[in-house]
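tool=predict chain=A
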Amino acid sequence: MPLQKTVSFEPVPKDEPSNFKRALDEYVNRRGKKSKTPQFIADLQKSSKLPSKEDVNDAMKTLEKESTDSKVTRNIRKILRPVITVLDDYSGVVDTLSTAPLTKLSNADPMPTAIIWGCMKVVINTSKRYLNLYDDIKDQLGDITIQLNILTEFEELFGESQTMQELLQMSYIDVIRFWVRVDKECHRCVANRMGRALSSFSTSKLDGIIKDIERNAERVSQLVPVVQERIQRGERENAAEERRLAGIARDQQTAFIEQQLEELKLRAIARKSQRQKDVRDWLRGHTTLNESNFRHQEQNIKRRSPDTCSWLSSNQLFKDWTDPDTGSHLLVTVELAVHHAKGHCSKN
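tool=predict ok
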């Protein structure tokens, strides 16, 4: 059944927060007291100037100029440009659905678009240090692009149905979760590589979030004919009845969110416990805390030429220095220190 274009948006009361504001508050509050709000979300909440599509395009141009790798530049154009186009359409929908009518733009909630572009800008800035990012998540970016397109198809129905509004709020939470996960994985990979640890970008959690968005889109598609039929008959909304007819249980949505949060807590506890175990084992001398450093050292030793530094074995000064009974190792060390001090004084 084609979508009807006769639906009007209801004004948002001044005292009532927008759907997006409620979704953001729910996302932050449900993370628990010990779980820190993602830094870029906290920065957006405090910032006087919120990011826009223009800021994202400027960040991309800067990245393209600074990159000396032609493959990276091609990936930026090929993978990110289509996503930005879709996000532009989606942010327009988000603005429409989270604000009052055009006559009351003073009530607009700027955070939805800020989150969308803010997340994208964070990813672009992080990718300066992690150039494989676009290769690693190109499939996930493609998937979320499709899902955002699907949600955009139902833009006019969201403003008319309470259940649609609830599903929109769920989609907001999932979109935020997606970009938070991308940002977190980027920083994890960068930190590990700075420590010389082998690390790869984990896309499994991104795939799970996209599945959640897909489920929301399926619920929306189930609700479309029910809402359209009610609108065509000119009847008032009965949210509970619409959910029943569409086979959507509100309790199931709440239970799903709570289950996800519980799983996040359990994974955080498991990661902390494993890290503590790794440190304890390392302190006991059973294992190495950073296997890759030792592996690199062993590989370098194997590649070393057999004759490397062999002349030292016939050097008398070196032989005396390695003999603990002669005390020459101390004399050589002191002699070098005195020589260095004399040279330093003569320069001054």
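The chain has two domains: 19-248, 309-347. DSSP finds 14 helices and no strands in the chain.
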